[in-house]
Write a structure and sequence with these properties.
Layout lengths: L1 H21 L5 H49 L3 H6 L2 H43 L1 H48 L1 H6 L3 H53 L5 H42 L18 E9 L7 E10 L4 E6 L5 H8 L7 E6 L2 E2 L5 H5 L2 E4 L10 H6 L9 H10 L3 H6 L17 H15 L3 E5 L7 H15 L3 E5 L3 H6 L2 E6 L2 E6 L1 H6 L4 H18 L1
Parallel strand pairs: 3-8, 3-9, 6-7, 7-8
Antiparallel strand pairs: 1-2, 1-4, 4-5, 9-10
Helix pairs in contact: 1-2, 1-4, 1-8, 2-4, 2-8, 4-5, 4-8, 5-7, 5-8, 7-8, 12-14, 14-15
Bound molecules: adenosine-5'-triphosphate (ATP).
Protein name: ATP-binding cassette domain-containing protein
GO cellular component, one term: plasma membrane
Keywords: ATP-binding, Cell membrane, Membrane, Nucleotide-binding, Transmembrane, Transmembrane helix
């Protein structure tokens, strides 16, 4: 940078020397050698500029990648309640677009403004050396340009934050429709999707347009000041030449330095604005990165036996603090027992599972593992002994091996271990039948597998984890009977010797449970074995079972 700045500053002076000697020296060879020297110097400047761009650009990319990684690491560690508030599309947009803004400012903006600062200082020194009197002309205009830059910068900062929020909203709308694309098409909702996206982009656009107006005003205002300063210099300089206090070469050099200095001042002001815009746009990023996260003790060996108890647990979701999802829930399960959670939709079954998994903490009451309050245990230690098989198993777009090995985060898993788990989950045969075996790529969310296959892979994953406590969210959609049988056999293997909490929907599962908890609007309405509960003919369980049996009989009767 020093090389390019020095050459840039020397150029007007050389030109002045050149002009003032046109009439003195008539020697063409002298002019040619001077022109050649200047050419060599310009070539050197080009090389130095290339090196400068490369250094700034690549450093900018490195810094941005580091910030992006830090943001991702902070996001992935956020508690589940954070994800109740922030949409995936929004977060994706923050990770890409918001971080990218930093790159532009850090690279070109920083490089240009640093160079401009050096040119500005050097230029002012040169101006003072050529003509202190004429330099006074500029003193009036320069602070005005810098002042405009500072004032608009403040407004930019606020606007930039709003603009990024607007962009994040667009990302959220797009992602929502892309991830539900089948539903959008099935319900012919493309027009609504277009309208929603247009609405979001319209809002973002109006914010950007009003910022552009501000930017244009700043550019227009500062360029007017620059030309005014040059005009004044020319007028005053002409008078000085007339009075013999200045040569034509000096005035030429002065004007070149003056435009260099005013241009540099404008660029510094512009950079200031860009910097303010970047701070505004990235405020959210650094807030998330700097959020204090609970320091978890390493998982260690929890050595849980599998006893679990809820003591007077009450809980409301942070987004709905006035609507308790669970109220005074009290139960205990012996190690190795199976309990079924039943109740109408919205009764609180999944919420109990979420609390066991530590996604949320109870508002009051305690959850005990082997008699120890969960609040006093490291979450990672508890989770290392838990596994969940979801209703709609979540698979990643990688291979079957990766999806099963996902169960173990602490160490490398061998293919033999994965195969053993798959065999126990009755999944080995169908996996081996694929041409790529365990390397078969399953597609986004396992789209290239059948429902029963996905479930058996999820069961193999849980088996590999070897949990003491298992949470099963029973699938409501029925598989064909052959698939159903295989999944059921795999589940029976998985449940053997483990404490199991099943969010149960099927009669056959419910009756087999050691104990049944019947939930009603977040309260524990009844609990006991199937036999005990059906005996209470006024109870909710009897009513639910009657409905279930009637539903099961309906297709047969039809
Ligand atoms: N993330 C959330 N934020 C706010 N409220 C929620 C959230 N998840 C669930 N709820 C509310 O909490 C209550 C209990 O929901 P929960 O999902 O536990 O019911 P459920 O018994 O599992 O229902 P289903 O059988 O339909 O899955 C419901 O009123 C639901 O609307």
């Amino acid at each position: 940078m020093a090389v390019t700045v020095l050459i840039q500053l020397a150029y007007p002076k050389a030109l002045s020397y050149f002009i003032d000697n046109i009439n003195v020296r008539k020697d063409m060879a002298w002019f040619s050698s001077l022109a050649l020297t200047m050419l060599a110097v310009l070539a050197l400047q080009a090389v130095a500029a290339t090196a400068r761009y490369y250094i700034f650009e690549s450093t900018g990319y490195m810094i941005v990648t580091r910030i992006r990684r830090q943001l991702y690491a902070a996001l992935i560690e956020q508690p589940i309640r954070f994800y109740d508030k922030h949409h995936v599309g929004e977060l994706n947009n923050r990770l890409t677009a918001d971080v990218e803004i930093l790159h532009d400012t850090l690279t070109m903006g920083m490089a240009v403004s640093l160079r401009c600062l050096c040119v500005f200082i050097g230029g002012v020194v040169m101006l003072l050396t050529i003509s202190p009197v004429l330099s006074l002309m500029l003193v009036i205009f320069l602070p005005a340009t810098l002042f405009i830059g500072k004032m608009t910068g403040k407004v930019y900062r606020k606007r930039a934050s709003l603009m990024q929020d607007g962009q994040a909203e667009c990302g959220k709308v797009a992602q929502e429709h892309f991830s539900n694309i089948r539903l959008v098409h099935a319900f012919s909702q493309q027009r609504t999707a277009r309208a929603r996206y247009a609405g979001a982009t319209e809002h973002a656009l109006s914010l950007s347009v009003s910022s552009s107006a501000l930017f244009a005003l700043f550019r227009g205002g500062s360029s007017f000041l620059v030309y005014l300063a040059l005009l004044g210099t020319l007028w005053f300089g002409a008078r000085l030449i007339g009075q013999g206090q200045m040569t034509v070469g000096d005035l030429t050099a002065f004007i070149l330095y003056a435009s260099m200095v005013t241009e540099a001042a404008g660029a510094i002001g512009e950079f200031w604005n860009a910097w303010m815009r970047t701070i505004g746009a990235t405020e959210w990023i650094f807030k998330v990165i700097n959020t204090e996260r609970a320091q978890e003790a390493p998982a260690g060996e929890a050595g849980l036996q599998g006893r679990l108890a809820f003591e007077d647990v009450a809980f409301a979701y942070p987004e709905r603090p006035d609507a308790p999802a669970l109220n005074k829930i009290d139960f205990s399960i012996a190690a190795g027992d199976t309990i079924a959670l039943v109740g109408a939709s919205g009764a609180g079954k999944s919420t109990i599972a979420s609390l066991i998994l530590g996604f949320y903490r109870p508002d009051s009451g305690r959850i005990l593992f082997d008699g120890v309050d969960a609040a006093a245990m490291p979450l990672a230690a508890i989770r290392s002994k838990l596994a969940i098989v979801e209703q709609e198993p979540s698979l990643f777009s990688g291979s079957i091996f990766e999806n099963i090995a996902f169960a173990v985060a602490e160490r490398e898993v061998t293919l033999d271990e994965v195969k053993a788990a798959a065999a126990l989950a009755y999944a080995h045969d169908f996996i081996s039948a694929f041409p790529d075996g365990y390397d078969t790529v399953v597609g986004e969310r396992g789209a290239q597998l059948s429902g029963g296959q996905k479930q058996r892979i999820a069961i193999a994953r849980a088996l590999l984890r070897d949990p003491r406590i298992l949470i099963l969210d029973e699938a409501t959609s029925a598989l064909d009977s052959a698939s159903e049988l295989q999944v059921q056999r795999a589940l029976d293997t998985l449940m053997q010797g483990r404490t199991t909490i099943i969010i149960a929907h099927r009669f056959s599962t419910i009756v087999k449970a050691d104990r049944i908890l019947v939930l009603e609007q977040g309260r524990l309405a009844q609990h006991g074995t199937h036999a005990q509960l059906v005996a209470q003919q006024e109870g909710l369980y009897f009513h639910l079972m009657r409905h279930q049996l009637a539903r099961a009989a309906a297709p047969a009767a039809a």
